[in-house]
Amino acid sequence: MESKEAIQQKEEHIRQLVRALPDHKRLKFFKETEMKLKDADTYAALNFVFVAGIHHFYLGKWARGLVNIIIFFTGVVMLFTGLIAIGIFILIAITIVELYALFRAQLIVQDYNNNLMEAIYRDINKEA
Fold it and tell me: CA-CA-CA-CA torsion for 112, 118, 120, 121, nearest 10 degrees?
């Protein structure tokens, strides 16, 4: 992922592009983004409550979400077998990875929203 400064610069660049759109296209842009933008607090809450990776589904990252859930439940299953130490290691590792994502939730969602706004801008700008 890009740095905080790069993400903020990208967002400002998109805002400048949108300001230059004609009124009817700008209105359409804002209507579309209002329906599709994601909230960083929701992402963080899903991450905090469901360490297993549910927050990835919120951003449409299905593959990563499934991988996280599989790894998490593999660790849980190992707790009930003879591989308790490996299960604990897996759960600690996935928790550390997801805690990092939790602390960067604002930037992760901002980057996601920037990419979304850029795609919507391109689609609207193509229209006659």
Answer: 160
Number of domains in the chain: 1
What DSSP line would sit under 12-72, residue for residue?
Answer: HHHHHHHHTS-HHHHHHHHHHHHHH---HHHHHHHHHH-TTTHHHHHTT-HHHHHHHHHHH
Which range of residues forms the domain containing residue 99? 4-126
Is the pTM higher than 0.90? The answer reads: no
At 35-77, the pLDDT tens digits run 999 998 888 888 887 777 888 889 998 998 898 889 889 998 9
